[in-house]
Amino acid sequence: MADEEEAPPPLRELSVAAADHDDEDEDDDDEEEEEEEGTPSYKSVATTQLHTANLPRPSDGTFSRPTLGLAKSTQDGRKIAIKTMNTYFELVGRPLFQNLTDAYVANDNLEHLMEEIVGFLVSNPLPHDFGKGFAPKESNSKKMWMEDSLFQVISGIKNCLREKFRNHPTWPQSRSDNPVWYTELVKLGKKEWKRNYKEKWKNDPDLVFGGAKIMPVYR
Questions:
Q1: pTM of the model
Q2: Would you say 183 and 107 are in contact if contact means Cβ atoms under 8 Å apart?
Q3: How far apart are the two ends of the chain, measured CA to CA in Å?
Q4: Which alpha helices (H) appear in the chain, and where do they start and end?
Q5: Boundaries of every domain in the chain
Q6: What is the structure's pLDDT at 2?
Q7: For 6-65, how does the pLDDT look when each residue is reduced to its tens digit (9 = 90+)?
Q8: How many CB atoms lie within 10 A of CB 167?
Q9: How many CB atoms lie within 10 A of CB 149?
Q10: Chain Cα centroid distance, residue 80
Q11: How far is the C-alpha of 126 from the C-alpha of 129, rounded, in Å?
Q12: b/e per residue 84-111 (b: at least 16 CB within 10 A)
């Protein structure tokens, strides 16, 4: 039987903020910064962003936005999202996140890529702490990601792609809005995950992680 997850630290939804914040976004980020004791004020962070907006992106796939002033939970969430993407990309032979190009995700390819990632993540039990091929780092561990944690990571993956390809036409003009296809994808993905958990994983005494089964969400 799969152990109930000891939930990892809450993954704050990754911010897609950049130096060109509108007024509404500034208010939201200001409130978030005040919650983190000892972090710089929004004004100081925004000033840093303006001075670094034109710097090249690091080769490891992280954003050009400086990490100074980001909450630790935000930084951790971003790392987990990128790690999850890259573990999947290595598994299926796709370019790693940091090597994705505008041409690779042109037109509806970005949408299809996201559908593929979500289809995999909801079709396989994922260990609480995974390594290559999503195999658990502790071979005898049965702790798995539950629904809330998984879909926080999926939201983080979407935000990483949105930040990297911020000019892609699939994104709505308002930064607070999601594409219709993404909202529907999450809805179907949650339904599929619940079905798999209830019918396959919850009471399986021989639950195996890292089986690498790839199933489409739309079927």
A1: 0.66
A2: no
A3: 28
A4: 23-35, 42-52, 72-92, 109-121, 147-164, 180-196
A5: 23-201
A6: 57
A7: 444 444 443 333 334 444 444 544 444 444 444 444 333 333 333 333 333 444 444 444
A8: 6
A9: 19
A10: 7
A11: 8
A12: bbbbbbeeeebeebeebeeeebeeeebb
- Unique residue bearing structure tokens 């990309």: 89
49: left (phi over 0), alpha (psi -120 to 50) or beta: alpha
Closest CA to 134 of 195, 196, 89: 89
Matching residue, tokens 């308002």? 174
Question: d(Cα 142, Cα 136) in Å, to the nearest integer?
Answer: 9
Of the listed ranges 11-15, 138-142, 179-183, the least confidently predicted one is: 11-15
Q: Number of H helices and number of E strands within the chain?
A: 6, 0
* Averaged pLDDT, 149-159: 96
Give the C-alpha separation, 29 to 174, whole Å: 15
CA distance 46 to 76: 21
CA dist 150 and 144 (Å) reads: 10
Res 106 pLDDT > 90: yes
